[in-house]
């Protein structure tokens, strides 16, 4: 895939460093990788245009601002061919932060972030139950998130 998109070692190093710290300036990143800040800027622009880089995200400790419930919902579909339709409807539910089309028991595995159990109940009962094509769901509540991280994409030296 990398060859098809014309991604080289420097591109992978830039991606890797930016995943670790998206706040680093292009000038500082250039110094770290022994190229100019302008080169970093051009490479980042190319990576955005190719769709490899899709913006930047602010990482927030959601519990500190009142979002105390993270749950995972295994969704069984009536037919797997309904995935696209159901996924489109799930995108409309703001508490759902991620969905994955999966193998195994569930057709879809969704992550949901809520302020409290009452909000989760509302999402499950009032929102998900109305989505046509969902046969049933199983909800798993996260008790604690130990860590989240990106993978290392930089090539070995």
Automatic annotation (TrEMBL):
SMART domains cross-referenced by the UniProt entry: HTH_ASNC
Transcription regulation listed as a keyword: yes
Source taxon at top rank: Bacteria
Coiled-coil stretches noted in the UniProt entry, renumbered to this chain: none
Keyword S-adenosyl-L-methionine among UniProt keywords: no
Pfam families linked: AsnC_trans_reg, HTH_24
Residues of the HTH asnC-type domain: 7-68
The entry's keywords: DNA-binding, Transcription, Transcription regulation
Protein name in UniProt: Lrp/AsnC ligand binding domain-containing protein
